[in-house]
Amino acid sequence: YLNSKDEKAYEALADSLLSSKHFGERWAALWMDLSRYADTKGYESDGSRESWRYRDWLIDSFNEDKPYDQFLTEQIAGDLLPNATDAQYIATAFSRNSMTNDEGGTENEEFRTAAVLDRVNTVWESLMGTTFACVQCHSHPYDPFRHEEYYKFAAYFNNTRDEDVEREYPLLREFGDTLKQELSKVTEWVKKYSSEEAAENCKHFLRTWQPSVYSTTADSLRNAVITGNSGDLAMRNHSAARLKHVNLQ
């Protein structure tokens, strides 16, 4: 480029850089820092976490020049969009990048709350361009945010489970070609003998295992225990456990 005599050399260089796949990698790296991306869970054990699909979604979004409003919408509420695609589900990992402490003996509600507050602070710092974590304890010293407003905003995010166990459900399952064909056969059968809505619900369940009842919600245990890091319910003969907030309809 520096030695070129072509009047359009600068234009050609800019076009080549913008069209390169590395363009998306360069800008995705900045957003990965803002969205606290990591390949591990953090805290004491810092176990591995497979969230690279979100990284690839970021790279593809920048290379596709995705509109910024769509870029944000898919990350905050991609799973709530009509007929959400796999890519839009993956985009919501923006809110799944919080640290998880699956060390034995930790209190689920404590770290669930920590994850909620982390999401609140991340949204404000990355999207609004201002610090917000300080408002958790007192009104903002410079910006017009009252202490009470922090928890009004936190209410939007305070509807998550976030049990601190090794398996970070819910997960989006990926199938190989053979299993994709089997899944298609199952959903077509359900559609034929029930309804299209039932077929979609079946497909959603097989790919996410949602809705599910989790043993970590059990209480009033008798001759039973919820095991440490896995959160599994271990029961002996003549045992019992109550599962809270279960809709049997």
**Helix content class:** 40-55%
Number of strands: 2
Order of helices and strands: HHHHHHHHHEE
Q: How are the strands ordered across the major sheet?
A: 1-2
What's the tally of helices?
Answer: 9
Determine the strand fraction and express it as a percent band. Answer: 5-15%
Cα separation of the termini: 68 Å
Describe the main β-sheet briefly.
Answer: 2 strands, antiparallel
The radius of gyration is 23 Å
Q: What oligomeric state do these chains adopt?
A: single chain
Low confidence ranges: none
| Structural classification | mainly alpha
Categorize the overall geometry: globular
Mean pLDDT: 87
Structural summary, described in words:
Among the domains are: 1-34 and 52-95, no CATH class; 106-173, no CATH class. The chain is built from 9 helices and 2 strands. It has helices spanning 9-19, 21-34, 52-63, 68-77, 86-91, 108-128, 147-154, 177-193, 196-208, and strands at 218-226, 233-243. A two-stranded antiparallel ribbon has the order 1-2. Strand 1 (218-226) and strand 2 (233-243) form a beta hairpin. The longest helix is centred in the middle third of the chain and has 21 residues, at 108-128. The chain starts with 8 loop residues before the first helix and ends in a 6-residue tail after the last strand. 14% of the residues are buried.
